[in-house]
Amino acid sequence: MSSLVKVPDNPVRVNARLDDPLSRWLWLAKWILAVPHYVLLFFLWIAFTVVSVIAFFAILFTERYPRTLFDFNLGILRWIWRVAYYSFGALGTDRYPPFSLGEEPQYPARLDIAYPERLSRGLVLVKWWLLATPHYVVIGFFLGGLRLGVWYGGLILVLTIIAAVTLAFTERYPKDLYDLVLGLDRWALRVAAYATLMTDSYPPFRLDVGGSEPSHREDRS
After folding, report:
1. Which of 71, 104, 164, 194 is the most exposed place for a label (fewest CB within 10 A)?
2. How far is CA 41 from CA 37, 48, 88, 101, 188, in A?
3. Count of beta carbons in the 10 Å neighbourhood of residue 220
4. Residues whose CB is less than 8 angstroms from the CB of residue 147 and which lie 6 or more positions away in sequence, other chains included
């Protein structure tokens, strides 16, 4: 017998708003303008890694991710997402990212992860390496990486460069291209939250495009 089941929203919610108008040429300098953020985020990522290790043992023994540590790491991911959205993770705004671990609701790129009251002790042992591996393969294609000492840009970088060139000549960021870039970013951020132990919800193999996070869906079971 089938029934209509309401599937809860994904605990990792990525939302963004495309600013209009955007500068035709500022994108040429954004990688330089973002350097202070990159320097700070290098050290914050080290802290993020240390906190994640501490959280690993906390979850293993208590089934809880300490709330203070969770909020700290969420703040770092929010910061990373804002900088990526400003620069070549999307080029979706000309508003300079704030130097902040806070929520910053007025900034056009937002990330929220629902705090889990309980996390599985068993999953914490395998989700960050074994279970997440298929997603690593996929987002590796999105993000690119270092191979044999040579940096290869991923699909997101290629698409944002296309968008930047289009913007320079037409003063418009193609809507379909923007929606696709946001879908790829959303996928990567969902995997980041899962792999860093912030949720037990397995990331869907689904490209949810557009700036707005999809609402709940209804499935039949």
Report:
1. 71
2. 6, 10, 16, 11, 18
3. 7
4. none
CB atoms within 10 A of CB 170: 10
Q: How big is the chain, counted in residues?
A: 221
Token pair in block for residue 185: 């970013």
| CA distance linking residue 86 with residue 81, whole number of Å | 9
In the chain, the amino acid numbered 185 is D
Mean pLDDT, each 10-residue run in order, the chain (221 residues):
46 96 96 97 98 98 98 98 97 98 97 97 96 96 72 88 97 97 97 98 96 66 37
**Segments making up each domain of the chain, as ranges:** 8-216
β-strand partners of 218: 6
Of 173, 184, 189, nearest to 208 by C-alpha is 184
The model's pTM: 0.91
